[in-house]
TrEMBL record:
Coiled-coil segments on the chain, per record: none
Family that this chain belongs to: Belongs to the sigma-70 factor family. ECF subfamily.
Pfam families recorded: Sigma70_r2, Sigma70_r4_2
GO BP annotation list: DNA-templated transcription initiation
The keyword Amino-acid biosynthesis appears for this protein: no
Official protein name in the record: RNA polymerase, sigma-24 subunit, ECF subfamily
Length: 185
């Protein structure tokens, strides 16, 4: 890694062996450097993106550039961009949370919500035995074994009833599943 010009020329010509050597040589240093700005996991991802960018743009590299400085600058800029994007996301999340604070803090909001009404309506469409097994597992957090003992049926019967209830609910609420998963899980 001592002759910078030769390394850059080799990269420019598509020398995969030199690229692999550059990758191995700089990877740990760049990760360590990047982790001064972001988490180590994020830094590793940034370094991998940087190396991918280097390979994809190798033909446009200036042979006079300092590869080391170039790579460290890219990692630093990507890390700073990530920090900036994280701050923007956090501010947006905080603004939404503040705007809907009362709704998030008031559990009655969800019970009065139209989505909850649709969910309750879908539950009423279940066969009573299916609904009973489903509600025991969801509302009372009972295991399938406990439900089987309580209802005096086999474990497989409980599995079947809950499975059937879930199938029916998925069909009834197919348009709302992502929202339901977020609200009730």
């Amino acid at each position: 890694m001592k002759n910078n010009k030769q390394i850059v020329k080799a990269l420019t010509s598509g020398d995969k062996i030199i690229f692999e050597k550059v990758y191995r040589h700089y990877y740990q240093w760049l990760c360590s450097f990047g982790s001064q700005y972001v988490s180590l996991d994020e830094a590793e991802e940034i370094v991998q993106d940087t190396m991918l960018w280097l390979w994809e743009n190798r033909t446009s590299l200036n042979p006079n550039l300092s590869l080391k400085s170039f790579l460290f600058t890219i990692v630093k800029n990507k890390a700073l961009n990530q920090i900036h994007h994280s701050h923007i996301k956090r501010r947006a999340y905080d603004a939404i949370a503040l705007e809907h604070k009362e709704e998030f803090e008031n559990p009655k909001f969800y019970m009065e919500n139209e989505l909850f009404v649709l969910y309750k309506k879908a539950l009423t469409k279940l066969d009573p035995k299916l609904r009973e097994a489903y509600e025991l597992t969801r509302k009372k957090n009972l295991t399938h074994k406990q439900i089987a003992e309580m209802l005096n049926v086999s474990h497989q019967t409980v599995n079947y009833r809950i499975g059937q209830a879930l199938k029916i609910l998925r069909v009834e609420l197919k348009d709302y599943l992502p929202l339901l998963a977020f609200l009730f899980c």
